[in-house]
Write a structure and sequence with these properties.
Radius of gyration: 16 Å
Order of helices and strands: EHEHEEH
Strand content: 15-25%
Strand order of the largest sheet: 1-2
Helix content: 25-40%
Mean pLDDT: 87
Number of strands: 4
């Protein structure tokens, strides 16, 4: 197994259709829609046909703390769900329909359909 941390949504050292599995966590750290689309496009490029993309992320939260920060940062970032952390990082929690749109070119496996470990 080889793990790589990407600073940019690009994997020029990986040829097309060269990976069986890509694990990605978390889109929350990439707040821009275009950057997320570029990343998913690149991951799709390097996956073999029938390969698996495992994506872990956070949906919009409905607690008071998160509702307040989503509202506070919605205007400056123009997206409800964007927020800044205490150290100034910009993050995003997503509505579930964002993943439907972002991953439209993928076949989505539900937990019941996921393969059992060997």
């Amino acid at each position: 197994m080889h793990l790589t941390v990407l600073d940019e949504p690009s994997m020029p050292d990986r040829p097309d259709a060269s990976l069986d599995v890509v694990l990605f966590a978390v889109l929350t750290c990439i707040p821009g829609n275009d950057a997320q689309r570029r990343l998913v496009g690149e991951l799709s490029r390097v996956l073999k046909p029938g390969g698996m993309l495992y994506l872990s992320d956070l949906l919009l939260q409905d607690d008071e703390r998160n509702r307040d920060r989503y509202a506070r940062f919605a205007e400056p970032y123009r997206t409800y769900g964007d927020f800044e952390t205490g150290d100034g990082a910009v993050c995003r929690n997503h509505p579930s329909d964002w993943f439907t749109s972002l991953l439209a070119d993928f076949e989505i496996a539900t937990p019941a359909e996921s393969p059992s470990p060997p």
